[in-house]
Amino acid sequence: MNEVKTVLVNNLTKGFDNIMAVSGINFEVYCGECFGLIGPNGAGKSTTIKMLTTLLPPDDGEAVINGYSIVKNPAGVRGSIGYVPQLLSVDGAMTGYENLLVFSKLYGLKRKQREERIKRVLDITGLEDAAHRQVKTYSGGMVRRLEIGQAILNYPQVLFLDEPTVGLDPVARKTIWKHIEKLRCEQNMTILLTTHYMEEAEALCSRIAIMNKGKIAVMGTARELRESTGNPHAGMDDVFAYYAGALESQEGDLRDASRTRRTAKRLG
Ligand SMILES: Nc1ncnc2c1ncn2[C@@H]1O[C@H](COP(=O)(O)OP(=O)(O)OP(=O)(O)O)[C@@H](O)[C@H]1O
Ligand SMILES: [Mg+2]
């Protein structure tokens, strides 16, 4: 990690009909850093990621990714990022290899380059042996690894991961962590991820921002967040409850559980 800032977010704002999904947030991410956006359901995490990946225009504010403005040069932003959405982005009827091939064509890679990149991505994601099986036979963790593979085919400088491990068992989750950490260390990729899991944020992210109701409630290293609650020995779940509100997180758990089941069903 160095002091170059790859992501600069300034007063980013987005409202829907009767709700301010994101209210004037500010943060920066350094080159080669893994930065975590944490928060309960509806906090505004996905809306933030969609604005940063240029899928949604902001109502106000600005962000600069790799030197490109999301407002003035969305095409420049798109060319230098990878994005793994919260919802499924692979085709179960195709093999892993075929899914990667479609994406490599979308990225405009030449034939020779396509073969090289797909081989490299299968290696990075540990999917070589399963490459020629239909994706509907994959486990949830394998599907998520394939989605990450799709997102890194164009060797992006910044990778956005919206809940990379939702619905996965603890072992599959740790495998995904290992791959994310590998991308960050070996490719010096800057990674911005969202999660509900505080332990995940602590394991992967050098800094964490806790979002609640469209605002960033607090931001810092896991240690700084603990100390900011007045109890340096607080568990990370206590930190989450402190900033996100115990009631909301309970309500969130219920919605999270039903969504996890939906995800499992889609993957199944
Ligand atoms: N397209 C949309 N139209 C209307 N409201 C929306 C839309 N997208 C998001 N919202 C609302 O904006 C708020 C923030 O949603 P967002 O999806 O960003 O939250 P989140 O933090 O990603 O939540 P989760 O943890 O459940 O994924 C929510 O109240 C949501 O209902
Ligand atoms: Mg979301």
Automatic annotation (TrEMBL):
GO: which molecular function terms? Answer: ATP binding; ATP hydrolysis activity
Q: Which residues form the ABC transporter domain?
A: 7-238
Q: Which SMART domains match?
A: AAA
Signal peptide (residue range)? none
Record InterPro entries: AAA+_ATPase, ABC_transporter-like_ATP-bd, P-loop_NTPase
| Keyword set, alphabetical order | ATP-binding, Nucleotide-binding
- The molecule here is called ABC transporter ATP-binding protein
**Which organism does this sequence originate in?**
Desulfocucumis palustris
